[in-house]
Design a protein that fits this description.
By secondary structure, this protein is mainly β. The protein has one domain. The chain has 1 helix and 6 strands. Strands 1, 2, 3, 4, 5 and 6 form a 6-stranded antiparallel beta sheet that branches. It is globular and about 45 Å long. It comes from Limosilactobacillus coleohominis 101-4-CHN. This is DUF7671 domain-containing protein.
Length: about 110
């Protein structure tokens, strides 16, 4: 693919979240009661812009995800991750982001 058809690709580490009933968000846990880090990337048709950790994104399966970390990704490696649909303008609370970043450190960086 020619350079002009390439776009900047970022990899995002995130935790699925759901509404908590009071206008905020809470971590969505699996059957084992644990929240798990998953990865996504920007795609050619991803809407919106990434600003900072704590921002929410919507996956192609309409799952809301809180971004806890982001890193650049090589264009040629993009097919190893699933693209996200759009970045949302809302963000999670500082406490939820701190909890999410602790989970990220335990699951990914250790």
């Amino acid at each position: 693919m020619s350079k002009k058809n390439q776009y900047t690709v970022q990899k995002f580490y995130g935790l699925p979240v759901e509404n908590d009933g009071s206008g905020g968000y809470q971590l969505k846990t699996g059957a084992d009661g644990q929240a798990k880090i998953h990865t996504w990337r920007t795609g050619k048709h991803t809407k919106g812009k990434y600003h900072h950790p704590g921002q929410l994104l919507l996956t192609e399966n309409n799952l809301m995800v809180m971004i806890v970390a982001a890193e650049p990704m090589e264009f040629k490696d993009r097919h190893s991750e699933v693209p996200c649909q759009r970045f949302l303008s809302v963000e999670a609370s500082a406490d939820l982001l701190t909890t999410g970043q602790q989970i990220f450190k335990q699951q990914v960086t250790s």
